[in-house]
Design goal:
By secondary structure, the chain is of the alpha+beta class. The chain is built from 14 helices and 20 strands. Helix content is 33%, strand content 24%.
Length: 460
Amino acid sequence: MRTAARMTREYLRGLPAGCAPERSCADSPLAGDIYGDAFLTRPVFLGRGESRELGERVSRLYDLLLALPHRLHGGDLRAFTAALGWSPEQLDATLRADGRPRELPRSARVDLYRDEEGFRLLELNGGSPLGGWDIAVLNRTLLQEPYIASFAQEHGLGFTDGTEVLLDLWRQSFPGLPANPVVALVEWPDSYAVMEPHLRRMAGLLAAHGVDAVPCHLGQVEYRTDGVHVSGRPVDLVHRWFVINDVVTAGDVALLAPLSRAADRGLVHLFTPLENEVYGSKAALALLSDERNRCLFDRAEREVIDGLLPWTRLVQDGKTEVAGERVDLLPYASAHRHDLVLKASSSHSGLDVLAGWETSADAWDAAVRAAVDGPSVLQRRVRPVAEEFPVPGGGATEPVVLTWGVFLAGRGYGGAYLRGTADLDSGVISSGRGGRLGTVFLCDDDNRDHPREEVPDEAA
């Protein structure tokens, strides 16, 4: 954090009057659709060594999530997934009929706050339908500002291109993928109209790397004896953009089943199967946090959990442990609502999140009672440390709190994108609640001996 604070001070100290990169960002290709139209007023900085350490910590936590079915249910993935609160339809859509686990790509994005002690994990989104793959567009837009370009050159700043990370994940996961593959970017039919502009922009970014990417929805996918086709073209890889919450009815399961069968038969590569989302459930995080499962982990594993994950519990009417004491969960939640957040375990994008400090006592108690034994968790509030940002319009700075969306790519850091707000007590930082989009530049760490990455041409 010291590195970022120093770089921020230097950036703000030299900031010329009239430099307002958020205005350029508002004209960038990212403006609109899933990202909204509001942008942070400066780039955010992270040490290269710190990014690597964070990626390694997230990777170790992900390893523990992947191990939970074996440690809790003897490897019975169906029993584990049912324990997370998934419906029979979701189980049928997600898992193989014989219950055998699939080999899953190591692709995820964690959402974090940064408090006084470091990064703290709010949730983990597993699989492929992750916002932020294209965030390098914003880095390149910022580098069109003369001051930012010169600052980046002076300090050797760089950034991670999420599109290149995605391509590497595809190739690592599927070594037989052609050099110039045809890739279907597949959404759920009901969501396609909203997501189509985003998917078409992704297709354009991928085309620059020799990928013929075809946006479509699942109802447009054709299954033939020789493989999977979209718009008459044979497809090498399907990149899934829909999520488990899209699967509600038996008809939804039937719509998805041919794709799952084709992938299991080797007729098409699927990035990623819905099984990935089992490990992105907040209920799975609660199982890591629950003191009843502490005996499943050795000392080093417990340090990984405690170092990243705040206190998180499934909402159940019974005893739990808080700071070494056994308490009744529901009365505790009622008495400590200002320190707790109620979350649906499989939701995303800040949806279905209720912050206790933003909620009346009666409404909070009713919501917690309604969540008992459902797919919901209570999580300890994390109070992020604010960073200084120029006030839109210039002339002053203001404190802003950030949500960091950090990608896990394989076993390491795969880039990050951010949301920020000047509402320091906001329970959710999202575009729907005024959150501003931002991006990260990597810099050399203070008092560390890490090799410097090559500075991108855009910063030269």
